[in-house]
Amino acid sequence: xxxxxxxxxxxxxxxxxxxxxxxxxxxxxxxxxxxxxxxxxxxxxxxxxxxxxxxxxxxxxxxxxxxxxxxxxxxxxxxxxxxxxxxxxxxxxxxxxxxxxxxxxxxxxxxxxxxxxxxxxxxxxxxxxxxxxxxxxxxxxxxxxxxxxxxxxxxxxxxxxxxxxxxxxxxxxxxxxxxxxxxxxxxxxxxxxxxxxxxxxxxxxxxxxxxxxxxxxxxxxxxxxxxxxxxxxxxxxxxxxxxxxxxxxxxxxxxxxxxxxxxxxxxxxxxxxxxxxxxxxxxxxxxxxxxxxxxxxxxxxxxxxxxxxxxxxxxxxxxxxxxxxxxxxxxxx
Length: 333
Known about the structure:
Shape: globular
Number of strands: 13
Strand order of the largest sheet: 8-10-7-11-9-12-13
Largest sheet: 7 strands, mixed
């Protein structure tokens, strides 16, 4: 029996990617480990598309459904322009429940300047909690989409904001009662407010204007998973500096309560950006001007170096392993 969460990389290759045999000449970027978006040739322009489900959150599902795929489009340095939602709701769902979800989705889309252009809504016994699958679409000039395959040894690994943003917000919102014994009201409020910080559209657009060697919004699998996936795309190694990865105190506290690793926790709201050494200062200045926190957390190495992190102590490096089921699923079951 398979674990909850997205399929691990080996299984995804074996039972999903290998079954896709037809290749259209218009498709520029196809499915692959760590690839957030498909890119399609539209002549002078490229169409950038991404699709993702929201299954692990309940209270903020409408809001997160918009952010999750818009973030993917932004990871290509492209502004999202439209989104479609397939909404599947369990028997017993009320009109008020649907109204709240769509109010969240509509408000969030308006804030991002993205139109909800279609979808599907149904009540079904096939699900026992709400599920929303969102598909976002963006348009950019041909050749402007940022590609992680451009990563090269010597490039710096940059990260916006702090680790575990989305996971912290979901756990605090859906498990508030369990956390009241360990956290103050102020800490719980801080944690729940993190769900208002899960957009990386600004991050991606700003970085795209400078030029990158690739970007990846940090979702399931957390920071370590995102770094591993990007190195897989580019065929490179890396050295990740664990002590340089920013994390909020409340995120650490919540992870300690549930005995989970914040570096493997879903982190929508953080963008991983790979940048050439000559563009590092320009990127930092642009992000500071846009009021987006950014940190340098590592450097790309040759493939034979391995995908490594500095958290072993005694100056030794540890191998970063492929992402498995996100730490969030240890909490929500």
